[in-house]
Amino acid sequence: MARSAVDQTFLSHTWLRTWWESFGEGKQLHIITLRDGGELVAAAPMMRTRSRMYGLKLDTLELIYNPHTPRCDFIIANNCEEAVYERMWRELCSTDRCDAIALNQVPDTSPTIPAIESLAQADGWLTGQWASPPSPYIPLNCEYEQFFASLKGGYRYNLRKRFERLGKLGPVDVEVIRDRAGVRDAMADGLKIEAAAWKGDHGTAIASDPAVTEFYVKLAERQADLGQLHLTFLRVGGKRISFNYLLRNNKTLYGVKIGYDPEYHTYSPGNALLNLILQKACADGLAEYDFLGVNDEWKFDWTKETRQHRWLFLFRNHLRPKFLHYMKFSVLPRMKHVLRAR
Question: Are 244 and 255 in contact (CB under 8 A)?
Answer without folding.
Answer: yes
